[in-house]
Amino acid sequence: MGYVAVQGGITAIENSQKLNRYLRLRGTSSPLSVAQIMEQMGPLVDRVMSEGGLYSPFHAALALKQASGDPLEASFLVRAFRSTLRRMTDSLPVRTDQMRILRRISSAFKTIPGGQLLGSTSDYEQRILDFSLAEETEDVQEEAVREFEESARSPTQDAAPLAPQDFVKVVDILRAQGLVAPPPATEQRPAMDITQESVEFPLGRSGRLQMLARAETGGVLALAYSSMRGYGSVHPTIGELRVGRVQVRIPHPFRAGETVTLGSIVVTEVEIVASVQRPEGEEKPTFSLGYGACFGHNEVKAISMAVLDRAMKSPSPHAPAEDQEFVLLHTDGIESSGFCSHFKLPHYVTFQADLDRLRDIRRNDE
Amino acid sequence: MSLKDLLGGPDFRYNFAFLDEGAKREVRRALLKAVALPGHQVPFASPELPIARGWGTGGLQVTMSLIGPDDVLKIIDQGCDGSVNAVNLRKLLVATTGVRTTFDSREATLMQSRHRLPEIPMTEGQIAVLQVPLPEPLRLVEPSEVETRRMHAEGDYARMWVSLYEDVVQNGSVSLSWGYPCRVNDTYIMSPSPIPRWDLHMLHDSEHLTLLGAGREKRVYAVPPHTSVRPLEFDDIPFTVENFSGMACARCGSTDTFLDEIYDEKTGQPSRVCSDSGYCDLVTQGMIRARQAARA
Predict the structure, then answer these.
(1) Same domain as B273, residue B132
(2) How much is the pTM?
């Protein structure tokens, strides 16, 4: 109710903000530095960049510090910051076939042109809590780094040669044999920008992939899992999963035909090969494809995206994961968490109206 | 820490009313279309704001796109100027515009609200901005956006009427309590935002312009002045508003306002007070006379 709360509301909000800061800082440890978060919490920073829709490890790490590590809150901070930035130009399509590989695997073929590179992954770690980390000192840190760098340089080590920068994509091998369907002509439209244009359904593929790229990791995972498990029929084979650095280029502002490289970003890209289909107008059956790509190193998200991309192309949608509106409107973490939280706001008026209806209906029953 | 610090420290880098002028123009273009097609939901880009989705970002973008330095702003939530979220939104708008604010709805040129309209009907030249969580009234009967847009385009409202009919059959009266679906300009069915049925008459043939913004759902729509807004009702089962007959505001004595039911913190005793705190304050300060029910 009002009156007293007119002042009380303001004071309560200010005190709540002070309390947040106090709770973050009251412990005996020294303040967390943004550099520590950037360097030692890579997957979390990547997730916030991806869901926040802004490639900036610094801003993502800063947001994580401010949000005390809550990825939804941090992504929201980044997204809100991003919407104030001027959009200067569109970059050229990123050439993932020219990626500087950090990791590359295929579940389809044992050997592939350019080779498989396990790189950094927790996939084959035994998930045993490492209590020595609790005692990690700067000496241990230096020693571990020195040891790794020396062994990586050692000529006696059976180290994989650096993957070439240009290599054939696994899916292109299949494509050359006509085993995967060419993209439908309706998907060849120029890319839209979901941050500048309103989203309407049915949404073109560029819009769908953009929405998935900013979607919340847990959200896309849950829906993709539903499709893998039984509500749908996407049983993916990972044609190729790669993580690496790609260059971001723009057309030269003055010299026609030339490009300028702005820098490089780390992305995860996944192409899945799914069930056999018989595209309309094509005589021979082909594999269907799904594509996922997101900022940073986030394999679960990229695979889930690819599964959902494929599921949403289903010719006869019946499962939730095959419904564009269902998938895209319910996986944005900023929107879903915002709406979920809003139920904490006062609903005195609507509840009063609800009470009025219930009492009225009960009278009707008598 | 002040909001000004949060928004970029001493070298204040944000535009007047936070949004850049291009983004404001985009919202205004959508609003112009909305005014031209009363009750029709117009999509807009709806970029993220520093306020959470579902907390009034639609209304906020409408306000930000319209507000000028000379505007007088009133922001309420549940009818109350002091409600925490109203305080928060007001703080953001004041920090980014420096406009004058008021609790007196008669003074406001722009009035942004969640869940209520002021008890004193607004007048010509005033703009009401309503925050909307779910802009689609047909969502009640149809989950798909593609399908509801088709239904609006074709005026295919049969399922809506059937659902009201079934409601009456099951409950003896329509159980929809707030956000009651209305026919606007005898054309589109519109959600008036979650205002109580009590407030609906103030949208009908009003002096003022009402703009409705749904940020998360990325839609704006409008009710221009002197446009008909009629709640869906059957000839033999008329629309009714909340029943406060025999009740009075424990604070100002009004018997013809929307009343909140409250419970005393110590004794647990129920009582009633005006939901519109600005109105109630004016009565208790002797600025206006308490409204007495003719309806009761």
Answers:
(1) no
(2) 0.89
